[in-house]
Amino acid sequence: MSPRLRDSALMLGLLALLAVGLVGAVTATGWDEVRAQITKLSIPQGAALLALSLVNYLFRGLRWHLFARHLGLPLSLATNLRHFLGGFAMTVTPGRVGELVRMRWIKRETGWAFERTAPLVLVDRASDLAAMAVLMGAALVASGSQISGAVPVVIAALLAAFIATRPRLLASLAQFGHRSTGKAPRLFARIRRAARSLEPFSKGGTLFAGSTLALCGWLAEGMAFYLLLHWMGAEVHAASAIAIFLFATLAGGLTGAPGGLGGAEAAMIALLSLEGVPLAMSVPATVLIRLTTLWFAILIGLVVFPFAERLSKKVQYGLE
């Protein structure tokens, strides 16, 4: 089976399992009750949820531009935003590796090899992890919520962010991995080269500024989740809603499933239940927040992707 076919089969399998789980939860709750909760959401309220998601994407897109300029890439804000948003089309690939299409577009338009642009991916992910971990930690303290496993997730996210932004440490780990396994010498060599190229981000306030932008973006989506619950009539503190949203997002990502499918939804419903939110509210709330965050991002990516692909080819062949 080819890698593409395998990835498609994995994606379809996950979607099928997710659908079965959600249908089972809705059936157990009652279709009429779930439908009644969904109809509570008005069109302006739905638009507000999408607007808050857009705030997240734009703040993180500005961060991508900040990192790209700091790395020395001669690309405009519009071009970097096109690359960033277009990459969302590949969010549901395993481990989100499909988002590396952004590196292909950059190579076409600038001639920069993957090893030179790899730090963008690393610091982008590290910045997200750091921002989400800090925000979730603050939300947990503010709400007093006792989410099982939350502290280890926060620590793991901060540790991963720390390693990914420490060039010498990352290079040492790559060297150790090569010596320990004796395999994939080219892969470990690339990791070492990428680690060395992280040097521009190891000093100064660029990483801090980028993480601040990411924190504002994720806060917007966390607030969207709180507003959705509030409009449905769930009595959940804003800080608790933000903590649940971020924990579910991180937990889903740790499963390695495309877009955190299955894991994020299950965690969200379970945590809402612990807050006393009935399934009649938690299930539709989870479905709606995933539609207005994950699937909305994918929709934007699918719209932008063809333009990013075509324009990068024009630049590559000197047609522009």
Automatic annotation (TrEMBL):
Question: Which InterPro entries does this entry report, sorted A to Z?
Answer: L-PG_synthase/AglD (IPR022791)
Taxonomically, the superkingdom here is Bacteria
The portions of this protein that span the membrane are: 41-59, 134-163, 207-229, 241-261, 281-305
The record's subcellular locations are: Cell membrane
| Keyword Cell cycle included in the entry's annotation | no
Phosphoprotein in keyword set:
no
Listed under GO cellular component are: plasma membrane
Q: How is it placed in the membrane, per its record? A: Multi-pass membrane protein
Q: Which residues form the signal peptide?
A: none
The record's keywords, sorted A to Z, are:
Cell membrane, Membrane, Transmembrane, Transmembrane helix
Q: Which Pfam families match?
A: LPG_synthase_TM (PF03706)
- Protein's name in the database: Integral membrane protein
Which organism was this protein described from? Answer: Celeribacter baekdonensis B30
